[in-house]
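Hey Z.,

So I finally got round to the heme C thing we talked about over coffee. Here's the setup:
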Amino acid sequence: MRKPLIALAGLAVGGAALAGLVFSGALNRSVVSSKVETPLTAEQIKQLAPHGAKVAAAADCYACHTARGGAPWAGGMPFETPFGVIHATNISPSPEGIGGWSRAAFHRALRDGIAPGGRHLYPAMPYTSYRGMSEGDVDALFAYMTTRAPMPVANAKNGLAFPFDQRWTLAAWNFLHLPASVAEPDPERSALWNRGRYVTEALGHCGECHTPRDLTQGLRQSQALTGAVIEGLEAPDITPTGLTRMGFSPASLATFMGSGLSAQGSATHQMFDVVHFSTRHMDRADLTAMAAYLFDRDALAEEAPPAPPTPAPVAADVTARAEKTYAGLCAGCHGAKGEGIPHVSVPMRGNASLRTASASGFVRAVLAGLPAQSFPNGERMEAMPGFAADLDDAAIVDLTNWMRAEWGGQAPTVRAQDVASVRATLTTRHAAGE
Ligand code: HEC
Ligand code: HEC
Ligand code: HEC
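And the result:
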């Protein structure tokens, strides 16, 4: 609990120091041009809306702005932050949402993080990333949003502690963390790489989960995409080093982002939602560009996937116990040799979840199971049961260390407290009725 407290103190002090500047308006660094003060015509809105639908999918607006089972675009999704709960708002064109917003107001909300009336938005809305969106794409998005059905749903109340309920303090946060300008295309790099950077950073906002944050929750750009912890789960390193470690090639990464499935396993937890609501709707050219950017290549050629991992040594007693557990509980679905069963379950041999630095995602899957998930092209995976009640921490340590070593090539370093801490997050979440 120390981290949020330090952050709280830091933000309060920083906030107080900058309050004067805020009220003097000196921190206003808009990237929105005066061109968007001119309203779009009805004809322009009609023409732009179909492209806006694609932008909305690539930027994953729906997933956050629609509560599960709730009215489309009417908001209500809760986000746990170290400072309390924030809810995504209604962005349908009703009076409770963005009904009556001007084109310019929409641009400022998306790229500056400021809603009409100078109301600062919380960075749970990823405007830090959307700041890089092009004017044309934001116009298209505006056209698409204003042509959705209006939903008369009131916004949920946030549960933020003082001083985080004071929106003006966000001007200080923006001063510290919001880039003053937007990245221009890099003339030294190919069009493919530049498009990939735009799709990954501005639209896909991968860094919002995969880049670590500092004490005041700003993204540490010096460690961009090197991995971070999101709601107790590791969003792994997706730099070229991290992707290669998980066994991805550019081609298999593009396949994974487009379908949620590849030889490296299936998309799970928050990553399933990213694929389901967003990246699977991207066209092949954008998926390829994203893969080129993430592997830092100007062009992609046919290449062999990285070599399968070399098994790491494990103690004989661990192997004996783990093999028994695996044969009894897992082999029926994942195959006796970890080879998987087509259309039923994914292979374990070479699975990315066995090769990441942290085993938390793997342990979470074993404890809590995974829901049945449907993937594009009619592919479907059955549900996986959770084994929290069948396996104690010691048994899961053995199983995890053995599987990671045997099929992921990772040194067996998982300890009982690693499993216990994942188990603890499950209990509190279930107790909270989630
Ligand atoms: C990761 C979740 C997330 C994603 C993705 C996201 N939003 Fe948001 N958005 C939020 C949250 C949370 C708020 C409320 C912030 C606040 O209350 O300060 C918000 C607020 C807004 C607002 C301000 C509405 C108001 O009246 O306060 C607009 C407009 C908006 N989002 C549009 C979008 C669009 C368009 C996209 C896609 C390009 C998008 N959002 C993607 C979480 C998200
Ligand atoms: C909402 C947070 C979030 C966003 C946004 C996000 N990811 Fe992830 N990602 C995760 C988490 C969490 C995991 C680990 C999943 C697990 O362990 O079950 C993950 C896993 C992955 C993996 C490893 C494969 C796997 O399933 O373990 C890749 C590759 C990946 N993400 C790429 C991306 C790319 C590219 C983007 C941007 C288009 C992106 N992610 C956006 C949270 C996110
Ligand atoms: C009833 C069948 C079933 C059993 C039994 C089962 N699994 Fe699974 N498992 C699945 C399915 C299906 C998936 C893919 C889920 C999805 O993507 O929707 C999966 C996914 C996983 C994943 C995530 C892999 C990835 O690609 O992200 C891990 C890790 C895992 N299983 C480990 C185990 C272990 C360890 C056991 C034994 C303790 C086990 N499973 C038992 C069906 C099963």
